[in-house]
Amino acid sequence: MSEVPGWTRLPDLASRAVGGSVVWANDEFFAERENLIRAAEPAYQTYTFGHKGQVYDGWETRRRRSPGDDQAVVRLGLPGIVRGVVVDTAFFTGNYPPHGSVEATSVEGYPSPDELAAAEWEVLVPKSPLGGNQKHYFEVFVERRYTHVRLTMHPDGGVARLRVFGEPVADPRFLVAGALDLAALENGASVTGCSNMFYSSPSNLIAPGQANLMGEGWETARRRDDGNDWVALKLAEAGTVTLAELDTSHFSGNAPAWASVLGCDARKDPDAWFDLLPRTRLQPDTRHRFRLAGDVEVTHARLDIFPDGGMARLRLFGALTASGHEALTRRWLDLLPPAHARLVAG
């Protein structure tokens, strides 16, 4: 196809820029799978050799000496309807796959690679010829919402980028009307303590925006005991939490295996902690969202990770109580310089 299709102007649902991740590949001997969904266009540097050969900005597997195909599974950062797929073999000239195909599935929660392998997959792009060093455009005509796609190279080789263009379709269960991030730094929350901050500050957990790399999150040293790491927070003000987001983006080999979130109302008893989110399994490099009961007022929260590792972000969405909103407003007014306070008061 010589003309670029109009559907390429839609969002790339798989891009790292919107939270996508490559959750599994059966082989990445020459070039790592994560390159598949980088937002930047592929680049090439001549005579850039590592101990496994030329370094490619893409995903490349070893040469097969037995029957079979190579595959990579991508979790869409924005689940939705797929309108078109681009398989880009940029700079792969003697090592591109002769054929490729793309499937998709829709699953609940945050499954492991083994659980994804057992899911029902539907064909978006049938086995199709591929050429070297070029973009291949495949229009998709399936009117369904998907959460994951699977790229198959028949039989092996290298692909620089996989673009999955489409229309995001939100899960209404996670749309909480009027919700405020009570744990956000910009809303007045703060870190009050943590078990370990060897690699980076726990304040990164509640910073604005998405983390762009591992160093923009919070990461602890490796534990060699039976304990676990934690971070304690003072929330913006008293409120109820109805949605928790635990984001392990960029933490692939060092994400926690499990996590929990506790809450307490320090106005009543600063030592009376209770479950907001019970201990829950986490996946690497994944933005997890969990609905909470939201029926208890809290002023503080504590994230426990088991046993150690790194987290990109923690979000606790909910609503301020009436007294919490009043206290936040009073503190803001009390801290304004007199001239600004008079202006606000009218």
Automatic annotation (TrEMBL):
The chemistry this enzyme catalyses reads:
allantoate + H2O = (S)-ureidoglycolate + urea
GO molecular function terms attached to this record: allantoicase activity
What top-tier enzyme class does this entry carry?
Answer: hydrolase
Q: Where is the Allantoicase domain?
A: 19-168, 188-319
Q: What is its EC number?
A: 3.5.3.4
**UniProt keyword annotations, A-Z:** Hydrolase, Purine metabolism
Q: Where are the transmembrane segments?
A: none
Output the GO biological process annotations, alphabetical, semicolon-separated.
Answer: allantoin catabolic process; purine nucleobase metabolic process
Q: Which Pfam families match?
A: Allantoicase
Q: In which pathway does it act?
A: Nitrogen metabolism; (S)-allantoin degradation; (S)-ureidoglycolate from allantoate (aminidohydrolase route): step 1/1
**UniProt keyword Cytoplasm, yes or no:** no
Could you say which protein family the record assigns here? Belongs to the allantoicase family.
Cite the PANTHER family for this sequence: ALLANTOICASE, INACTIVE ALLANTOICASE-RELATED
What NCBIfam families does this protein map onto? Answer: allantoicase (TIGR02961)
Q: What is this protein called?
A: Probable allantoicase
**What organism does the UniProt record list as the source?**
Umezawaea endophytica
In the UniProt record, the gene name given for this protein reads alc
